Amino acid sequence: MQMPSRLTLTLLLSLCSCAPSATPTTTCDPVGDVVPLCGWQNPEDLALLPDSRFVVVSEYGDMNGLKPGQLSALHLDTFERLPLFAGVDDEGDATWGDDACPGQPGPAFSPHGLHLVERDDGAWQLSVVQHGARESVELFEVHVDRGDDGDRLRVQWRGCWLPPPETLLNDVVALSDGQVFATKMMAPTNAVGMMATYAAVTTVAPDTGHVLRWAQGEGVSVVDNTSGSMPNGIEARGRELFINYSGVGEIRVVDVDDAQVKRRMFFDALDNATWAPDGRLLVAEARADSADAMACFTQAEDAPVAQCPIAYAIVAVDPDTLMATDFYVGGDDGSGAPVADGAGTVGLLVDDDTLLVGTFAGDRIALVRPSDNAP
Predict the structure, then answer these.
(1) pTM higher than 0.85 for the full model?
(2) Cβ–Cβ under 8 Å, residues 259 and 224
(3) Quick one: pLDDT at residue 65?
């Protein structure tokens, strides 16, 4: 999710006629069906490693690369947070990346969207958008080491690729054949330009970005028919790309091979997407008003140890018809009742009764409808 600068926020809030009501949640107590798993930094995106008990977590810094983050993992049996990568890997090599990759990102590493895929050679590839020190997509090999004392998850840096200049990336998806697709949300800009972009999005919804394609030995290119307003989350099924445009709340399905638009549907502002076990696409949808959303952005900078509670939903989308139903509605519903979650950016259904929800502005992963072994 895009995070405006402090000046932008001040200007936007000064134009709003209502005071924001999104008071950060500072306790880590369960509320209703929500069990907060606390101790994280803005767990913006989540990916389940199949046939394991691990979820890879992108602990987000910011879009400007000024605040570092790291890759971590959630152990589904113990609910522990396990550090994976913070910018340097002594065993890393660049064999999967682009020849122009300048090396590992270093301690400024600031991850955003991520995606796991099993490559045609059987290895598991983790692709990660990151903003620290450079704008890039970092590639990792994921290993699960089996042992008598339990399994251990680790990642090995395998290279990177760089987008064209004037690109601010958001999310990424890779195919088993090595193709990687990333959403260019917009161009980097200063505070005034950021404010103007957001104002335009809410009125005339201009095209601010598109999808980029990279493959080893082929470089980077723009995918035709993907230009739109704030391209955000992206997923793939077979030879189809499912692209979320947060500026207009659109899901657009584009063919990988000929770039033709196959179908589209409009919703509220959309963020990341994951696949449910039953084949539906779970998409995070923002449902907060503008004042509370701006307060949430501010809180993400000022109080990262708290949780922004603004309203959101995880919607289940039929990939063939793009018809959607609410799967889970969370955050502040305006009733004044306490909440344990909010500002959801991704919903990951790890089994029939365990939904994990990440956030761009908070200290927790929300575990919803927990199983019997939940903490």
Answers:
(1) yes
(2) yes
(3) 87
